[in-house]
Amino acid sequence: MARFSLKSWWQARRPGPWRIGVVVAEADQIPVTMSRYEATLVAPHGLPKWLAFDCPCERGHRIMLNLDPARSPRWKVIRQRPLTLSPSIDVDSYGQRCHYVVYHGHVNWVPSYKGGKRSRCASPRTI
Ligand SMILES: [Zn+2]
After folding, report:
1. Cα–Cα distance measured from residue 39 to residue 83, given in angstroms and rounded to the nearest whole number
2. Per-chain mean pLDDT for the chain
3. What's the gap in Å between 2 CA and the centre of ligand 1?
4. What is the pLDDT of residues 92-106, one digit of tens each?
């Protein structure tokens, strides 16, 4: 039985602002500055290869997701407008962790637990 989630039900009804706003043929055509809530799809010959956007944490780092099934790890654009991606994005940048799910144009942060305290960001994982 599927778990009922009021938040996902609400988000499915009310799309968030995130979307693919620009499509380019090559990665070197990705704009230096992007509009807020807008991702750039790199699709040479119409085949999705990369998705680039500025991380919603607003610390100024860019996310580049591989969409090419021949490479790993790989993400899928489930929907372009509003944007839905799979799986979650989990990056360590400048000693901070950014982990979130992009669903129906919304960014849903995955809480991390460090020292028993819940926070949005955490230190990088040690392997
Ligand atoms: Zn970030």
Report:
1. 9
2. 87
3. 30
4. 987 889 999 999 999
